[in-house]
Design goal:
Blueprint: H1 7-24, H2 34-53, H3 61-82, H4 90-95, H5 101-128, H6 140-164, H7 168-181, H8 198-201, H9 204-216, H10 223-247, H11 251-254
Helix pairs in contact: 1-5, 2-3, 3-5, 3-6, 3-7, 3-9, 5-6, 6-9, 6-10, 9-10
Length: about 260
Amino acid sequence: MIPDDLKPVFDQLLVMTEKELKQKYKRTVLGFFWSFLMPLAQTVVFFIVFSMIMRFDMKNYVLYLLSGMFLWQSFSNMAVQGAFCFLGNASLIKKTSCRRYTLGGAVVLAELVHLLCVVPLLVGVMVFYHVYPGWNLLLTPFLLALLGLYGTGIVLVNGTLNLFFRDLERILVILLQLWFFLTPVFYPPSAVPGNMEFLLKWNPFYWLLHAWRGVFYEPEAVWESMGMALVWGCVFLGAGMAVYRMGYKKFAEEI
């Protein structure tokens, strides 16, 4: 049961999430299937380059790539789309009394729905490679919740700052590309030189990715990674709430 004082927030969040899902694929032919096709296309590219040409000799490399690409794509979409969650809903912010943070929450929930729909595909690829899911598949909701913490934090930061600093949307593309290449999405952590391993340890997404692959690549409960991902998720959420609280009263003026 949802407490009466939270029910309006919950209802509004559902409405905004439904709107976000419909708007994302409006006037597209393939619609929801783009959530599958984009990471799949990138997987094919990286497989050709790093398995056939540059030779990352890894077991079940396609599964490794897919598990990483789907998770990264969801997070990246949250970051990019989150930059417009307030700017793109100017009429709602100016003309209604909606709880503005639900606009960011809808972006996060929509991407989590997409990623949840990908889980059966990942399990199917695991079985194809004779990698059978263990009991830790039950940790999937917890990992999605962790991604939700990361996503909510970065959406609130990007959405708020983009109202006051419009160059952010361009800077964000560069920062995400850099972050992607600093994260072992398409290469193994062992490929990172010993004197550069600190880049992994201080990379928030590395811990979430490692925990995720502990379910969908080499099934094992990676407790340390989940613990670190929880810590980083709380840091992201705290930063997002702090930035949002500093700026939300001026939203209507800046839009």
